[in-house]
Amino acid sequence: MNPFRFAAPQAFYPLAGAMVPWFGGAAALLAVVGLVIGFVLAPTDFQQGEVYRIIFIHVPSAWMAMFIYLVMAGYALLTLVMRARLSGMMARALAPTGALMAAISLWTGAVWGKPTWGTWWVWDARLTSTLILLFLYLGYVALVTAIEDPQRGDRAGALLLLVGVVNIPVIYFSVRWWNTLHQGASVSLTAAPTMAATMLAGMLVMSLAAWMYTIAAALHRVRSIILERERHTRWVRALAG
Amino acid sequence: MSELGTLGWALARDLKLALRRPGDGLNVLGFFVLSCSMFPLAVGPQREWLARIGPGVIWVAALLAVMLALPRLFEHDHADGTLDAMVASGRSLPLLVAGKLVAAWLVTGLPLIVVSPLLALAFSLPDGMLPVLLAALLLGTPVLLGIGAVAAALTLGVKAGPTLVALLCLPLYVPVLVFGAGAVEAGAAGLSPYPHLALLAAGMLAVALAAPPLAAQALRISVE
Amino acid sequence: MTGARFDRLAADGLALARGGRRLFAGVAFELHAGELILLTGPNGCGKSSLLRALLGLSPLAAGRLAWGAGAVAVRGRDLCPHAMYQGHAAGAKGELTAHENLALAAALDGTNIGGALAAVDGALDEAGLARQRDVEARRLSQGQRQRLHLARLALATRAGVRPLWLLDEPSAALDREGSALLGALLGRHLAGGGAAIVATHLPIAPEGAASRTLALDAFRPARVAG
């Protein structure tokens, strides 16, 4: 069986439909496990008490916001280089979830910040960078929505994503240079974690849950996009009856 | 027509057009000066305060003023069909765009730099900061223009144009703002501004090389 | 020097889509030196789009283009340096005079031999715009702006570059004199070994040459595809 056959929207549509419940189920399962670890099993923090537990949502969502942008940039490359229609649609399908993750990260950051630093918002490096990432998402969505022709919208959005992804390290570096108030990274994929193994496990499980949810949401969304884009074709008319 | 000839063609053309339409450049300059002038009126005339916020205010005003000029970069050419002629000519589109960008900087960026000493005076910035401010603006305004050109090219003919351009540009402008204003503030604090200026210079080099081809590609996508 | 030598252009199975629907499919033609194809069809059938697609300005949904005796495949914008394209729009900057606009266009096209201003003036003369030489383009009438296009073509017939002309509605707004001039210029171009594809509603008669018609609406696909 030729896997490239699924690069055609018509073939991908039913495949995506079949996959959504599996990823959704996995997301729900992992979320339950993660939340149990985070809110029940992990020990109380010495300094911050119970409030710190929001980290189990704050950090995974921040990671996902970043990761989704990278995936979108990957699809952007395919859209520009290979003019693959489905890639453009996948990027559009991922964008709202990415923006949501960034927003959740900011919101949970504020909820964490109030009892910890006494204020709802601080202009520290991590939060500011996440805010800028949110603007990058909103800019992408605004651009592709404003352009009427869907193909032109896909390609313009793709160019924007590639420019954005190259600039993200620069932006992050400049924001860190500008201010470093936020607590230093307590979980790093390369360095040894400075917190209990349970906490690390909890965050990784929640990240995985967020990833499964993202895939499910994107596949579900892309089906709507496919139907709208291909509404003039015979197979869509047949579906509509 | 050689490479330099192509760039020169676009540069000469856009300069000639700017001379026939002086309102555009004056508009940008006026906005720059006016928006800077709003701040003392809003926060009060205490010299120490103004000196503290001065670098930031001047930079933000410069940034907004440059963004004001962006929609005009390609819209006129798109509307009267001359952009199509350029794309269809078979000449190097990145070089044509580069010529337009140099012209745009001469008309938009250079006046800002020339006027900035007056604004430094208005904000009571110490004399030693002036060269740093000038250097930072000299290096930073081309970067703002280059990034803005890509955004302007992507949004060609799109209805929500100017606001959308602002949304697209602002995240990408953050590094320029940080290092540009940072250079001047470092100077004020007695620290060396050279790291900031060096990063701005690197940014300018990167944008000089990357912005024309990226904007050209964006233009091609927009006229498809 | 009288125009540039055109070599064969062969198109096969061209299809184009706009906003999700196919405008046309299966368009095929062969163009040789000295030939003129008139592209006809009602508004919106894709005449302008086809011209732009030949230049690579818009993507083709399907089809092959080949150029020259060796049938070299044409990719993307390969034809642009060899083509003289004139679209619907004015193609002139309103703030610049007729002379300045033509000089700019000639420099871009590469048709100003030796950068001679006299050539530009001569072309304006031929197009009947001698008196409008220093008039700003925004003050020219529609017909006069169309004549500015003709002046550009006049320069091209003398320069020996850009043998393929792709013109979109060149006779719009032209009076009888203007149309005759268009015919004369086309005739000169074709006689010199060039070729042209002209999208038009109105009849065009090239001086001393024949033309054939390609009716684009005949290539409209069946209502539902896929």
Structure keywords:
heterotrimer; A: 241 residues; mainly alpha; 7 helices; 0% strand; globular; B: 224 residues; 9 helices; 85% helix; elongated
Q: Low-confidence runs of chain A (pLDDT<50, min 5 residues)?
A: 180-193
Distance between the termini of chain C: 51 Å
What coarse outline of chain C follows from CA principal-axis ratios?
globular
Query: Which strand order does the major sheet of chain C show?
Result: 6-7-8-3-9
CATH fold node name of chain C: Rossmann fold
Helix content of chain A: over 70%
Parts with pLDDT < 50 across at least 5 consecutive residues of chain C = none
The share of residues in extended strands of chain C comes to 15-25%
Number of discrete domains of chain C: 1
What integer value in Å does the Rg of chain C equal? 17 Å
Q: Tell me what portion of residues of chain A adopts beta-strand conformation.
A: under 5%
Structural domains of chain A: how many: 1
How would you describe this structure to a colleague?
The complex is a heterotrimer of chains A (241), B (224) and C (226). With 241 residues, chain A is mainly α. Chain A has helices at residues 9-41, 55-82, 85-117, 125-146, 150-178, 197-229, 234-240. In chain A, helix 4 (125-146) runs antiparallel to helix 5 (150-178). With 224 residues, chain B is mostly helical. Chain B has one domain (3-222). Helices cover 85% and strands 0% of the residues of chain B. The mean pLDDT of chain B is 92. The termini of chain C are far apart. The model of chain C has no long low-confidence stretch (mean pLDDT 87). Chain C is an alpha/beta fold. Chain C is globular and about 50 Å long. A five-stranded parallel β-sheet of chain C has the order 6-7-8-3-9, with helices on both faces. Chain C has a single domain (9-219), classed as P-loop containing nucleotide triphosphate hydrolases (Rossmann fold, 3-Layer(aba) Sandwich), CATH 3.40.50. Chain C is 29% helix and 23% strand. In chain C, helix 5 (176-191) links the parallel strand 7 (164-168) and strand 8. Chains in contact: A-B, A-C, B-C. Chain A binds chain B through residues 132-133, 135-136, 138-139, 142-143, 146-147, 149, 151-152, 155-156, 159-160, 163-164, 167, 170-171, 173-175, 177-178, and chain B through 150, 154-155, 158-160, 164, 167-168, 170-172, 174-175, 178-179, 182, 214, 217-218, 221-222, 224.
